[in-house]
Protein: Thiopurine S-methyltransferase (TPMT)
Organism: Myroides guanonis
Amino acid sequence: MLNEAFWSSKYQSKSTHWNAGEITKPLKDYVDQLKDKNINILIPGVGHGHELKYLFNQGFKNVYVIDIATEPLDYIRKQLPAFPNERLIHGDFFELEGSFDLILEQTFFCALNPDLREKYAQKMNDLLSYNGKLVGVLFDFPLDTIGLPPYGGNKEEYELLFMNHMRLIKIERCYNSIKPRIDRELFIHIEKKND
Ligand SMILES: C[S@@+](CC[C@H](N)C(=O)[O-])C[C@H]1O[C@@H](n2cnc3c(N)ncnc32)[C@H](O)[C@@H]1O
């Protein structure tokens, strides 16, 4: 049910309550301390692309984004005409092939059916390059109240999930959340389980 048509209809009806309007502070602070602007970065479920815009304006050269809906990608094309079109990928994250040094998580995990969580963790591991990192925020509230996203979880659940597939570095209370998400977010830093 959480397919392309579902997400497209959200964008068409402008029911995009997840849209923070700009890069969120946890992601901005993380990006600001990155030194190497040549790393390959992926933003899955990119939506309006605020993180992409920030990275692009900061001079990060190799950023790729994917979204299952075309509407947000069209929006980004208009907002950032200089961004290479071939890096705006329309498709399903679970079918993406590639190798990335960093994958940024921002309200993508919570948008997926919870049945896909094991697959998400495995796919993240597969998409990361040697020592690659999955970094970002996950919601910290009960999983499912009305049967629709955003789906939450908690630190213990997330640790168990990611330990099975990846190298857990830290999952901790996010200290710099944007106001509506204060005390409802965990910051994650998880790395590829190298073979
Ligand atoms: C809750 S929105 C978050 C958008 C953006 N990350 C933000 O924070 O504004 C979830 C996004 O994931 C996209 N999405 C959902 N399932 C997907 C999938 N399997 N592959 C790629 N994108 C997907 C949706 O189209 C939507 O843009």
